[in-house]
Design a protein that fits this description.
The complex is a heterodimer of chains A (413) and B (455).
Chain A: H1 7-10, H2 22-31, H3 33-43, H4 47-78, H5 85-95, H6 98-113, H7 125-130, H8 132-137, H9 143-174, H10 177-206, H11 218-243, H12 253-284, H13 287-290, H14 301-319, H15 323-327, H16 329-351, E1 356-357, E2 360-361, H17 366-391, H18 404-408
Antiparallel strand pairs in A: 1-2
Chain B: H1 8-11, E1 17-24, H2 27-40, E2 45-48, H3 56-60, H4 67-93, H5 106-132, E3 156-161, H6 169-177, E4 183-188, H7 198-223, H8 276-280, H9 313-327, H10 340-358, H11 367-375, H12 389-393, H13 396-405, E5 406-407, E6 410-411, H14 419-435, H15 445-453
Antiparallel strand pairs in B: 1-3, 1-4, 2-3, 5-6
Helix pairs in contact in B: 4-5, 10-11, 10-14, 13-14
Classes of the chains: A mainly alpha (413), B alpha+beta (455).
Chain lengths: 413, 455
């Protein structure tokens, strides 16, 4: 392992606090839209359902970004990656978003625990008793066990995010290379824990919205979606921070290029997973499996599905493949924003078609989109405010990481 | 030495100046020099280094490669070929409905399209790279320079091509010297090809001769006849010292390898006379044993066959067979105990073997039949419905006989279905017939209600 004793002399410690109070104010300002969405939900007909589903969509959209960050942090430690050290602290901050989200998801869990079946039909004991399949699944899908698993999932994620951030911050003070070795050793089992908790959380919170349906690839689908979201978020953050003269020296165009490559790669991975899920179900044509895709082709959802196929895969695949697109900060930022929106549509498409009023699946409506956008901006504001709060006065870069030198000199061939 | 003057131009071509070579011992010096050459406006020149140098592309002003476009074109071509091929094969050339899917659909085509796009992209990348780099190139006149040998070790070179419009031997030489190289030298085209080493010529000739030998042998063998058996490289138990059907042998007097039954014996498993109703569907075996295995052959002629070609005896023979079968002493009761289990078995077997033609309800509307009708197959005879008066009146033994030996286009199923299962199918068939005959008054109230609500 390379160590460079004079590294900390050269690198000035920068923190997110240098951005001033404006980002926090903007984030908190955005969060006002969450109550607005709630009020809109009270006004519109069937608005409570719309709000509940939108709220779930918004929290799990933000959660996917944080979980992507957590994965990135752990995989960088596991593979002893050198290039990414300058980006790692920012990723660690983003992964801390699981803490505000754990609070935001809590109302969903409590309402479900109280037997409210707005979101999850299996929470209603009467429905379960009448439905053979739900009854068979009830040993797993029941409110008590659901709440317990919520504790396990969010407990694990908060623990992992805090662990990797705290060890990394501790190294800023001591410069002890042992901490890097420790994180390397821990990241293997941590990734296993992460893989299981993420897959099952996706199954519990999103897939069980349609409890009759199941897909064995669903956990990976949510994971792929999350990584697209995270790399978009990371790219946007980096371009923004560089424009504010933060990390401008350490993070150069080579790092942006690699973030762009990973964003592109995981976008293709998402498409691969999505087509894998679709193709098997399309081929088998079993009624209980097609029940997922059929409503997503009717009542306006077909347009959303096609938007995903063309907008989420085809267009970025053709235009974002070029090298210069990833090396030009403005172009990279454009594609990151674009793919973040596509990722939002993806989660929207996963969650919202499950709304049924009196057994009739709902069409895409203006009210639905309005409430959902307000809700996402509101939850996103709280999410970003949480990240800024946890980032606080901590350095924006692991200034005494033993591989920092390697990262600073990183160069794509 | 007067003779040497006679063919001067053929032997001695004038060597041409191909370019100049400047040697450096430091990558940074090379990059600095490259920038100056670039700025001087030369277009045909190159640098040679022992390892990839960061920044040399910019220093040389090399334009970004067009390879991605070649790869993209090849990939698109692969995708187009894949989609076109699948469309042609599945929807045009051999349309065949598989599990109710459309003949051509995008989701089913995606894996092949993906594979072929990737394959052709890879070809495009590999061959395009070779083509753009003008590879493979085994020899370059620069190789004659002693100094240039260190290019794979620790030296860095700039080569200026003489075909460059700005090139002039003196000016370019001066210019190169101004870049502070270790030294500058020129390189010339070859007057004569360098001689190949004797051993290499010998070895290559030998390999060539060896390569020609197998095809030559094959050609020879294919064009001549021989009495000896062909060479069998991997025998794979192809030759076994055993007797087979349809062959001759000298062991037996009659020369047949397959032996006729020995009189007064019964092959193992073939004795059925102890339960004639069960195995034949008959109360007793008739005098004429051949009727046991006959089936009523097609009475319908294919539409395209002319009446003159039809053998006049055929309808008569068929009628005679019908008569013969009708007179046999068929059993009217099941020769085995009728149970629920047997009914379930019969239903299962019926759905496996019979329903594809006869339909799940026995109305002759199975999928195969429907498709044959749709395609207007001339030779297809629509299977009879079980619910006609004639079929309903047939004794169970006769139905059993039909399953065993077939009727019209239907082949005998004795080889596929064991007798127990054939009886079970007959039982289920009877149940199907009964289901079409039942009077609503005989049903219980709940059953009527259930039938009403079932969609």
């Amino acid at each position: 392992m390379q160590t460079s004793p004079d590294t900390d002399n050269k690198i000035p410690v920068q923190t997110l606090a240098e951005l001033g109070p404006l980002p926090m104010k903007v984030a908190l300002g955005c969060s006002v839209l969450l109550p607005v969405a709630f009020v809109l939900g009270m006004i519109f007909t069937n608005g409570w359902d719309l709000f509940a589903f939108s709220y779930l969509q918004s929290t799990f959209f933000c959660l996917s970004i944080s979980l992507g960050a957590l994965f990135f942090v752990m995989i960088q430690q596991l593979t002893r990656a050198g290039w990414s050290v300058v980006l790692r602290r920012l990723s660690e901050f983003i992964s801390m978003g699981v803490i505000p989200l754990s609070v935001l998801v809590l109302p969903i869990v409590i309402l479900t625990l109280m037997g409210n079946d707005t979101l999850y039909q299996w929470a209603n004991t009467k429905t379960v008793a009448d439905d053979h399949l739900l009854h068979a699944k009830s040993p797993y899908l029941n409110t008590g066990f659901f709440a317990l698993r919520y504790l396990i999932y969010f407990g694990s994620w908060i623990f992992l995010a805090r662990y990797f951030l705290n060890k990394s911050v501790a190294q800023d003070a001591t410069g002890d290379p042992e901490l890097t070795l420790l994180m390397e050793r821990r990241s293997g089992p941590a990734l296993l824990l992460y893989a299981f908790t993420l897959s099952f959380a996706a199954i519990d919170f999103l897939m069980s919205l349609d409890a009759h349906w199941f897909s064995t690839i669903f956990g990976i689908y949510y994971f792929a979606a999350g990584l697209v979201g995270f790399f978009s978020f990371l790219a946007i953050s980096l371009v923004y921070l560089r424009s504010k003269n933060l990390l401008k020296g350490p993070v150069n165009v080579e790092h942006l290029h690699d973030v762009g490559k990973l964003l592109f790669a995981f976008n293709c991975f998402w498409a691969y997973i999505a087509i894998s899920q679709y193709l098997l179900i399309w081929y088998a044509n079993i009624p209980e499996e097609t029940s997922f895709f059929l409503p997503r082709q009717e009542q306006g959802w077909g347009v959303v599905s096609l938007t995903l196929v063309i907008g989420h895969f085809a267009i970025p695949f053709v235009f974002f493949m070029s090298r210069w697109m990833k090396r030009n900060p403005a172009a990279l930022c454009f594609w990151a924003v674009y793919l973040l929106i596509m990722n939002w549509i993806d989660i929207f498409w996963l969650v919202m078609p499950n709304i049924a009023f009196d057994g009739v699946k709902s069409a895409v409506t203006f009210q639905m989109i309005l409430i959902n956008v307000c809700c996402t901006i509101g939850v996103g504001g709280i999410f970003v405010a949480g990240i800024l709060k946890f980032a606080g006065e901590k350095s924006l870069m692991p200034v005494r990481d033993p591989r920092l030198e390697e990262s600073l000199k990183f160069h794509n061939i | 030495m007067a003779t040497t003057i006679e063919q001067p131009e053929k032997i001695k071509a004038e060597p041409q100046l191909l370019g100049l070579l400047a040697e450096f011992d430091d990558p940074h010096a090379l990059i600095e020099a490259s920038k100056k050459v670039r700025d001087a406006g030369y277009s045909k020149w190159d640098t040679h280094t022992p390892f990839p140098l960061h920044g040399i592309d910019e220093a040389m002003g090399i334009k970004w490669t067009i390879l991605p476009w070649i790869v993209a074109c090849c990939g698109l071509m692969g995708g187009t070929i894949a989609v076109g091929m699948q469309y042609w094969m599945n929807a045009v050339d051999y349309p065949f409905i598989i599990s109710g899917k459309p003949l051509f659909s995008i989701p089913a085509s995606i894996p092949i399209t993906f594979e072929l796009s990737v394959l052709l992209s890879a070809f495009g990348a590999f061959l395009g790279m070779l083509g753009l780099n003008q590879l493979p190139k085994l020899y370059n006149p620069m190789f004659k320079s002693q100094a240039f040998r260190r290019v794979t070790n620790d030296r860095f070179f700039i080569s200026m091509d003489a075909t460059d419009p700005k090139f002039s031997e003196i000016d370019t030489g001066e210019f190169l010297k101004s870049l502070n190289p270790l030294h500058v030298e020129d390189f010339w085209s070859d007057v004569e090809s360098p001689k190949l080493p004797r051993s290499l010529v010998l070895g290559l000739s030998l390999v060539g001769v060896l390569l020609i030998m197998p095809p030559a042998l094959v050609a020879y063998k294919r064009s001549t006849t021989t009495n000896t058996p062909r060479i069998h490289i991997v025998p794979d138990m192809d030759f076994q010292p055993k007797l087979k059907t349809q062959n001759t042998t000298s062991i037996f007097a009659d020369g047949r390898e397959v032996r006729p039954h020995i009189e007064g014996t019964i092959p193992r498993g073939q004795y059925k006379d102890d339960n004639i109703p069960f195995y034949y569907g008959l109360k007793v075996l008739p005098e004429d044993q051949d009727v046991i295995t006959i089936a009523v052959q097609d009475e319908q002629k294919p539409a395209d066959e002319k009446a003159a070609d039809a053998k006049p005896a055929d309808p008569a023979a068929a009628a005679a067979e019908v008569d013969k079968l009708a007179k046999l002493p068929w059993v009217t009761e099941f020769p085995m105990p009728v149970t629920d289990k047997m009914m379930a078995r019969g239903k299962e077997r019926y759905r496996i073997y019979c329903s594809v033609c006869h339909g799940l309800g026995g109305e002759g509307d199975g999928l195969v039949s429907l498709r044959a009708m749709e395609l207007q197959q001339g030779t297809w005879v629509r299977p009879a419905s079980y619910h006609t008066e004639n079929v309903r009146k047939l004794p169970v033994g006769r139905l059993f006989h039909t399953i065993s030996n077939g009727v019209r286009k239907m082949p005998g199923y004795a080889a596929q279905i064991p007798p127990e299962d054939r009886w079970a199918i007959v039982l289920y068939l009877r149940a199907l017939q009964k289901s079409h005959q039942i009077d609503a008054k005989d049903l219980r109230k709940e059953e009527v209600e259930k039938l009403r609500t079932t969609k």
